[in-house]
Fold:
Amino acid sequence: MPAQVELHDLLDGNDVPGVQAWLADNPPHVIADELARADDMRSVLLFRLLDKESAHEVFEELDPVDQQKVLSGLRDQTFRDVVEGMDPDDRARLLGEAPANFTQRVLAGLSPHERSLTARLLGYGPDDVGRYMSPEMVLLHEHATVAEALARVRAAGARAETIYTLPVADVSRRLVGVVSLRDLVLAEPSHPLADLVDTECVRVRATDEAEAAARLMQEANLLDLPVVDSDDRVVGLLTIDDALEVIEEADTEDIARQYGQSPVEGHYMSVGVFRLARSRIVWLFLLIVAATMTAKVLQAFEGELEQVTQLAVFIPLLVGTGGNVGAQAATGAVRALAVGELRPGDVFRLAWRECRVGLLLGLGLAAVGLVLAAVMTDGGIAVTVALSIVAICAWAAVVGATMPLLARQFGIDPAVISAPLVTTLVDATGLIIYFLIARVVLGL
Structure:
């Protein structure tokens, strides 16, 4: 029996010992998924049945919106214990998305030290690296020996979120470089630390975009990324687990927008019907307005349709083909922008390449379209359809690929140039191409 069905049955039967046994038999990420799926009351019930250590591990696996759901149902002492045990960066992300009264309750329950760390991170923007970095780290001095550095790690390592990458600074906390724990452990105790430091290490400003920093870590295969302020002083580390969360959030948002809806926070199965509808309805309104362009084009070429009614038979084929080609190109461009493979200066090179790709696609598809149209109609209309497919595919590929890049240059999220939006625009312009070619070939 699937785990989620079994737990559901245990909860429905009020079998508390059975639920406790299920919780003991499953790893934190599975339990966290069940908490996120459950309604508010059941998620709090499940969390209360966890032992202290398991509760901390499960809570770390939850997204901020689900963490807030659980915390809102806890009593004061348990509430304070949970928020005090959170890492400062996780706590800052939680509060960045929470109502003011919830934020006040969390901050009031923190110790002065944890409150100070959290307030420092909340001072950065929601998309800044500073909001995601960990300020709890082991900072080494450049003039120390390996033995002194290891002593420092042992003394302060328990309070740090990570010790695998150790930033090294001068007396003013300016970043000199980093040293890995592996190199430190394998070196002779009397060896100068400065000889082990990577002074060419990658670093980012605390005010840099978190997604760009996370993808930099992904490209450079880094476990941790030093974060500095405007004076190059070390203020924290962006860890790989936080970087992966940033990338996941960005990709989730991009996917939602590419398919014509607003991002929805929380577990998909716990999101209400009205929230889902609200996330989609605005885009559908925009698309239906944009779709009126297609109707306007048909109205403008009404005379051609009256003369050759068979032209209407191939409209679905042409707009469908153009929309699909445009959507493919847009998806590829958005992905390339996200991982840094496209730059603003690539727009003309990209347009020329995609035009050729579209022509090749169009030639292949036109061969099929020519045969189908020739079977169904006369030769003139078949040639019109074939030529239109070639032209529409080339145009759709150029539009789909360049629109996300142009959007980025105008400060618009490229993911907003969704596949449905590209499809709708290509539909209208593709019909114009079709009827103009019909005029030339058929002499209308």
